[in-house]
Amino acid sequence: MSPLAAFTPAAAMAQSTLPTQLPFTTVTSAKDITAGNAAAKADDGDDAAQFSDAKTSQGLRDMLIGLAMELRHVRYVRGGRDPSTGFDCSGFVRYVFERAIGLQLPSNSASQYLVGKIIHRDDMQPGDLVFFRNTTTSRHGRSKGGISHVAIYIGQGRFIHSPRRGESVRVDNLSDSYWAKRFAGARRPEAMAQIDAGAHNG
């Protein structure tokens, strides 16, 4: 597990942002996405409809998971931010979100934990961030510790991440005892949550 700083809320924490220009389209709001989908399907036929699918919530998740899976076997490097040199856990997550959908996340797992919408474990979807904490036991027998690891949920209880020194990007399962006792929660980056909301309201 990457030796990142423990979870310490800061007064001025960088927020996740969705740039105006994404690799696949110009986005101004979640409603624009869903409205654009409908217009493309009505005006331009099957080809436009297929293109518009990439702008939906599911399309974004597919791009995220697709890129993440392509990076399997890239080695762990502390502070790593690029596949040519290696990744640490937060560097891997940040790279995938920025390169796949143009979403910029904070630079470490503790600060990534501060942004986005809290997601109940039963409601997690592919592309959500899952977080883990250092585990220490209090005198009352409770687990505690700061956020020290982040991964990308890919569905069916599995997640992809850059685990620790000597290992490479791989898929693991939340039900594994090591991860189950360290699981700290899940978050959906705000821009993704907004797109979900626009799709449901459109």
UniProtKB/TrEMBL annotation:
UniProt KW keywords: Hydrolase, Protease, Thiol protease
Residue ranges annotated for the NlpC/P60 domain, each copy included: 58-190
InterPro entries (alphabetical): NLP_P60_dom (IPR000064), Papain-like_cys_pep_sf (IPR038765), Peptidase_C40 (IPR051202)
Pfam families referenced in this protein's UniProt entry, alphabetically: NLPC_P60
Family (UniProt): Belongs to the peptidase C40 family.
Name of this chain's protein: NlpC/P60 domain-containing protein
UniProt lineage: Bacteria, Pseudomonadati, Pseudomonadota, Gammaproteobacteria, Lysobacterales
